Each structure stands twice: as structure tokens, then as C-alpha cells.
Amino acid sequence: MIGLLALLLTFPAGQNAPVTGPGALCLKYSSFELAPGERVAKRTLAIENMQLDIDGPNGRYTITESELMGGPAREDRRIHTRPDAQVYALRGGGYAFRGVLPFSLHGAPLAEPVDQFYVSIRGHALDRRQSADPILARLTLGTPTTKDCLMRYQYGWEFFLPAETQ
Questions:
Q1: Pairing verdict, β 86-89 and 39-45
Q2: Coil, strand or helix at 27
Q3: For the chain, how many helices (H) and strands (E)?
Q4: Residue 74: which H helix or E strand, with range?
Q5: CA-CA-CA-CA dihedral for 32, 38, 39, 42, to nearest 10
């Protein structure tokens, strides 16, 4: 058990390196344009999700991408409809993105894509709508296969289990 915990904290290698904007951060199913003056302060990886804490001139915020994210509550409201996503303001603070999640393993389709919530952004930098909108606009749903990335963050079973067990 301790060995698995150590593996979860260290894999995939290189993803804990300092990253400073501007440039693209590529996640498993989305990408985010880091602005000048912003940096990845912390990253947390798990089997079915990941979080990036971003520090910037307007404060800190956290991007969470998850294959198991729940939908909004009845009190949450849709504020934008874009070609890649529907964006909801969450009653408890923050924003959630709904789009087509293309489940994959090693980049290959694993299951039929599902229209669901799989990214959220929360934090002090989003407290005012005038600072939130430019941040929300920099997130794009969809697998970033050809995008130049400052850092490519991966998570999932394929990174935590030996190949022969998959």
C-alpha cells in the first residue's frame, strides 16, 4: 500500500516541474492558456482526476479535470454556450464546463464519448465576473493532440499500473 501511495505521488515523471506562462497547459481532455505572469503553483494527480493550482496577478485559482465529475445543482446556471462547452456558474462559487468527454487509455478510445461535466475552475481570482470571464475563455475542452504545450499533464490508470495489468 505504501508503495502504491509513493507511485501516485511521483508519476508521471516531470509533471511537477515549475511552469510559467505564457503558453498552453495540456491536460488529458482539455487545454488551458496560461497568461503572462501566471504559474502552476501545485499539481495533484489521481487515478480519475487532476488539479492544477495557478497563481497569477489576480490571485489563485484551481483547475480540476475529472472523468467522474457530477453535474450542476438546480441552483447553478448556464452562463455561456460555446462550440466546445456549456459553462455554468456554480452557486457555491466557481464554474463548471460541460462537453463531450472522449474516454481514452494511452490516447486510444476506451468507451463511447459522453456529454458530461468534466472540468471546473474555482478560486479567489474568479470572485469578480470581470476577472473570471478572461480566465474562463482560456480553457478549451477536447483532447489537445497537436497543440504545443508548455507542459502536458496526464493521469489515469495507464500511468499508475504496469502495462501487463491493463
A1: unpaired
A2: coil
A3: 3, 14
A4: none
A5: -80
CA distance 99 to 117: 6
Could you give the CA distance from residue 93 to residue 73 in angstroms, rounded to a whole number?
Answer: 12
Structure confidence by residue, pLDDT tens digits, 64-75: 999 888 776 777
3-state percent breakdown (helix, strand, coil) of the chain, nearest 5? 15, 40, 45
pLDDT digits (tens, 9 = 90+) for 105-116: 666 666 777 788
d(CA 63, CA 61): 7
CB 75 within 8 A of CB 89: no
- State the sign of the Cα–Cα–Cα–Cα dihedral 49, 83, 144, 133: negative
Choose the weakest-confidence range: 27-36, 67-76, 133-142. Answer: 67-76
DSSP single-letter state for residue 102:
-
Strands (E), 82-129: 86-89, 95-101, 104-105, 108-109, 114-122
Could you tell me which residue, 63 or 6, shows the higher pLDDT? 63
Is the pLDDT at 137 greater than 90? The verdict is yes
Residue 95 near residue 137 (C-beta atoms within 8 A)? no
List, in order, residues 6 or more apart from 79 with CB less than 8 Å away.
Answer: 87, 88, 89, 95
